[in-house]
Amino acid sequence: MAGTLILVRHGQSEWNLKNLFTGWKNPDLTEQGIEEARAAGRKLKAAGYRPTVFYTSALVRAQHTLDLILEELGIVNVVITRNQALNERDYGDLSGLNKDDARAKWGEEQVLIWRRSYDVPPPGGESLKDTAARTLPYYEDRILPVVKAGETVLVAAHGNSLRSMVMAIEGLTPEQILKRELATGEPVVYRISKNGKLKEKLSV
Minimal CB count within 10 Å: which of 23, 55, 65, 199? Predict the structure, then answer.
């Protein structure tokens, strides 16, 4: 028996709109982000998905996204597990800075290294490798066993915490995952076999 894992990056946040490094800062969704989250719920409903177990991060933009998806699916009175292991990558000293201002301060090449290398963290922050080091154990210990048991699990989280999971599920290299973009509010659906291996990736 296979389980289903649905990953959704939160809808556009207020700081996405302002081109700011967000990380563990806690802005909410924009009007567009609210609509993206609702659209994700409508897509999942139209495709016949009925999630049974729910995870999100400790940050409001992911929590709000999950709430809106559940509203569209007509799912109420369920337990939602929130954990900071699913939080976005911590951008450290870059958090709250406009990306153009960061490039002016540190140089375009250095900011690009921080953003697009696998294991070079920004000052006071996390690399993608660091993010995976907290996200993957949580996925493997808490989320994957539930999927393997045949449940349909919905995880609403962030670009980099979800990329860590995608890397493990799809068996991607650090170079490959750096090129993978996850669009805001766009569900990614996997069928996972009871041995924990990827059975198929589905489109919604």
Answer: 199
